[in-house]
Amino acid sequence: MLGSLRSEDGKGAVRMQDRYDTHIDDLWSALTDPDRLVRWLGEVTGDLRPGGEFRAHFFGSGWKGTGRVQTCEPPHRLLLVTQDADEPDEHVIEVTLTADGGQTILVLEERGMPLDQLHAYGAGVQVHVEDLAAHLAGQERCDMQQRWAELMPAYKDLATNVG
């Protein structure tokens, strides 16, 4: 799996799509339950209802920031707005899930990142999605830095066509 990159209103966007051998409710739980998020992504605390605000720390990438839940339509759609303490711009993360028999299709888009850093964001988002797949398969997270470095050349190539 390799995501796609694009420019949208002068900012970058990353899109990932993958299919998981699990039911939609299980995948939704892995994406929204803090007790499960901590196993593959990081710590998320706060009000996770629509309009609620939360704090997050992603273990692999080290990202720390705040966010708010814009839309939550279980088990199909989640729209978050996040902000890194070091960046003035907000990012939008949109997740949609579609049941397909005993499997679930995930589409994740993150929008709002600087175009000159889009390749790095693309590789990072992919590592997080791969860690989600590992969690669902009962496996451990990968070595974030190693996997990110492996993915960077491919995402640099993708980013040359964006802008």
From TrEMBL:
Transmembrane segments: none annotated. Residues 22-136 form the Activator of Hsp90 ATPase homologue 1/2-like C-terminal domain. SUPFAM superfamilies: Bet v1-like. Coiled coil: none annotated. InterPro entries: ASHA1/2-like_C, START-like_dom_sf. Gene3D superfamilies: 3.30.530.20. Belongs to the AHA1 family. This is SRPBCC family protein.
